[in-house]
Amino acid sequence: MSTAERRKGERVIFERGIAAHMMGIDGTWRRECKMEDVSETGAKLTVEGSVEGLHLKEFFLLLSLTGLAYRRCELSWVNGDQIGITFLKPGDKKKGAKRAAAQS
After folding, report:
1. DSSP secondary structure string for all residues of 52-65
2. Contacting residues for 36 by C-beta, under 8 A, at least 6 apart
3. pTM for this prediction
4. 50-87 b/e with 16+ CB inside 10 Å = b?
5. In the chain, at which residue ranges do the beta strands (DSSP E only) sit?
6. CB under 8 A, 24+ apart: contacts of 10-18
7. In this predicted model, what pLDDT tens digit does every residue of 33-54 receive, in sequence order?
8. I want to staple 84 with a disulfide (CB 3.0 to 4.6 A). Which of 60, 77, 89, 92 is the partner?
9. Domain harbouring 25, CATH code
C-alpha cells in the first residue's frame, strides 16, 4: 500500500512550507520546522536540526509564535529530515479505555 493510499482526507500542499515549531509535551525541547503539507488527520514536516534523541511519541506542533494555535501530535514516519505526523484528537487515548471498561 502506497503512502498516498494510507492517507485519509485531502492534503493541502504548501509550495514554500509554513514556518512552525515542534515542542515536547513536557516543554524540555523545541525545534523549528516547516509544514510541507497538511490534512485533517496529519501533516508532513521538514525539521531543522536532528530529531535523534527527541521524545517524538507525543509532542505539540505550534503554528503561531504565541503558542495559541497548536495541535497535539504523534510521529508516524521519518525519512531523513522529513517526518510524518498524525494529529491526536482530545481524549483519543481515553476512548479505548472507556470502550474496554464498557465491554467487561
Report:
1. TT---SSEEEE-ST
2. 13, 14, 17, 43, 44, 45, 46, 82
3. 0.77
4. ebeebebeebbbbbeeeeeeebebebbeeeeeebbbeb
5. 12-24, 30-38, 42-47, 59-62, 70-79, 82-87
6. 10/39, 10/40, 11/37, 11/38, 11/39, 12/37, 12/38, 12/39, 13/37, 14/38, 17/46, 18/63
7. 999 999 999 999 999 988 888 8
8. 77
9. 2.40.10.220
Give 15's pLDDT tier (boundaries 50, 70, 90).
very high
Name the residue range of residue 27's domain.
3-103
Integer Cα distance of 63 and 69 in angstroms: 5
